[in-house]
Write a structure and sequence with these properties.
The complex is a heterodimer of chains A (119) and B (109). In chain A, 0% of the residues lie in helices and 44% in strands. Chain A is mostly beta strands. By secondary structure, chain B is mostly beta strands. Chain B is globular and about 40 Å long. Classes of the chains: A mainly beta (119), B mainly beta (109).
Chain lengths: 119, 109
């Protein structure tokens, strides 16, 4: 089946502009994560959606960042008034709890990412 | 704050050797641990997960977990040039995944 898709693959914007990044998770996956990865760095958690529960926004770096998930599927990450330090690859991942397991394991499947460059 | 520490590398090993990648984590309540491989310019992909103390083997890969020492490692036997990538260690802390900065592995032909 189709994997996680993200669009656009690349986005170049000017400082101060707003941008929207889109993520289409794997069908049926209830959990969706957004991460940011700066050049040569690890993954920085941004936000987590699980079903109809309130999202965990604890990783959002500032109030310029927001995200929503409509209908429990597609998610949009919005960055307002972009700054040069926002330049990074933004990765989306989706997962679903494995049925019948008592452990808190579920595999994340990552999308190809959106490379954001703020000039 | 929950953290994961890894040696950033690069770790260079000759082809055919065993590569040993190490990771320590701060959250004693963590239940699940993961190793992801990330090729340059690509997204991470899951290689192994482990949640019980001891070793877990899958082909050329062995994950080792020691919860008392808060330590997890990944061994790659018979390393191949195609194993050259960044390896990310992660644990599941509550509902979120916490990733380490990654170790860059270079397998020299």
């Amino acid at each position: 089946g189709a994997g996680v898709s993200q669009s656009p693959s690349n986005k170049v914007t000017e400082k101060g502009k707003d941008v929207e990044l889109r993520c289409d998770p794997i069908s049926g996956h209830t959990a969706l994560y957004w991460y940011r990865q700066s050049l040569g760095q690890g993954l920085e958690f941004l936000i987590y959606f699980q079903g109809n529960s309130a999202p965990d926004k604890s990783g959002l770096p500032s109030d310029r960042f927001s995200a929503e998930r409509t209908g429990g599927s597609v998610s949009t990450l919005t960055i307002q008034r972009t700054q040069q330090e926002d330049s990074a690859v933004y990765l989306c991942a989706s997962s679903t709890p494995t049925s019948g397991r008592a452990r808190s394991y579920n595999e994340q499947f990552f999308g190809p990412g959106t490379r954001l460059t703020v000039l | 704050q929950k953290e994961v520490e890894q040696n950033s590398g690069p770790l260079s090993v000759p082809e055919g050797a065993i590569a040993s990648l190490n990771c320590t984590y701060s959250d004693r309540g963590s239940q699940s641990f993961f190793w992801y491989r990330q090729y340059s310019g690509k997204s991470p992909e899951l290689i192994m997960f482990i949640y019980s103390n001891g070793d877990k083997e899958d082909g050329r890969f062995t994950a080792q977990l020691n919860k008392a020492s808060q330590y997890v490692s990944l061994l790659i036997r018979d390393s191949q040039p195609s194993d050259s990538a960044t390896y990310l260690c992660a644990f599941k802390g509550g509902q979120n995944f916490v990733f380490g900065p990654g170790t860059r592995l270079s397998v020299l032909p």
